[in-house]
Amino acid sequence: MESNTNKTKLKSTVLDRIQKEKICPRSRWFFGCYEFFLWALWIFSILVGSLAIAVSLFAITYQRYAFYEATHGSFLVFIVETLPYIWLVTFVVMVILAIFNLRQTKGGYRYPFWKVLISSLVFSFVGGGLLHVVGMGFMVDKKLGEHLHMYQSQEKMEQKMWQRPNEGRLVGFVVKMSNESNQNSINFKDIRGIEWETNIQNLFEDDLIVLRSGKKMKILGQVISTEPHRFHACGVFPWMFEKNMSIKELSAERRAVIDRIYQHKDHGSSSELKNIIDRCAELKVMKRLEMM
Q: Where would I find the H helices in the chain?
């Protein structure tokens, strides 16, 4: 009797609550679609998180082999300035969303939080690593930089750091190589459209090869004058964002750049070349390399 009374009270309570809150029954299709939607959101979160990891890996890889000595006083300062913070934040947000969505699925509440967290991280990192290997991080960063004005891609960041004439750095293209009357000079147009009469008598054969390529490049040296625009080149380096480069290629290019800079340093002590080379031997990058 008491059991029947309790059941009656429970039914009455449930019915009262249904009427009070105006709860309407929903079909199995609704809950099935809702479950599918939650899993779709989880998969989407993992995919975006993987993409964020891929772009971050691309950025960090390029930064690791960048010629940061020419632009910053230390590697720490360089990293703090160039880390892809927007993608790191995106990754954290996507992981949080992935955890939330998975916990909302049928039976998701049964999984411990740490298991859900680790699974989301593992899927994101594995996916991000695979996307990075096939060059997706490079492609996404480059395309967003080309089509979104506000997006600060790695290429835009590199241009911003290297297009600083007052600090001895230019980015651009060779307009005209030296002619018979002047074998030691070229015309170089930077990305701002300013044309510089550039002295190249300090350059080595590897630098001249880059100059003759006709491609976008970086020049390290010193401004001689701004009216007219004259520049003394101490090193010419290829633009590293034309294609997705492997770690082996990036490492080889950095080593070649460092070797060329040391050549200037060694030649700076030569009495025969002293008057010509001193302009390059006194660059800040020389002192930074000495401290390494």
A: 2-21, 28-64, 75-82, 85-104, 113-133, 136-147, 154-162, 205-212, 247-267, 274-281, 284-290
pLDDT higher than threshold 70 for residue 263: yes
Q: Running DSSP on this structure, what letter comes out for residue 182? A: B
Q: Mean pLDDT for the chain?
A: 82
Only one residue has tokens 């590199």, namely: 158
Nearest C-alpha neighbor of 122 from the set 114, 132, 112: 114
Buried b (16+ CB within 10 A) or exposed e, 123-147: bbeebbeebbeebbbbebbbeebee
Q: Averaged over 204-222, what is the pLDDT?
A: 90
**pTM (2 d.p.):** 0.79
- The two tokens of residue 89 are 């934040």
CA distance 131 to 134: 5
End-to-end CA distance of the chain: 89
**In Å, what is the CA distance from 146 to each residue of 76, 89, 139, 141, 292?**
28, 22, 11, 9, 36
Which tokens in the block code for residue 4?
């029947």
Residue 257: pLDDT band by 50, 70, 90 thresholds?
confident
Residue 209 in tokens? 């090869």
Whole-number pLDDT of residue 20: 67
Closest CA to 39 of 129, 125, 123: 123
**Domain range 163-290, CATH class:** mainly beta
CATH 2.40.50.140 location in the chain: 163-290
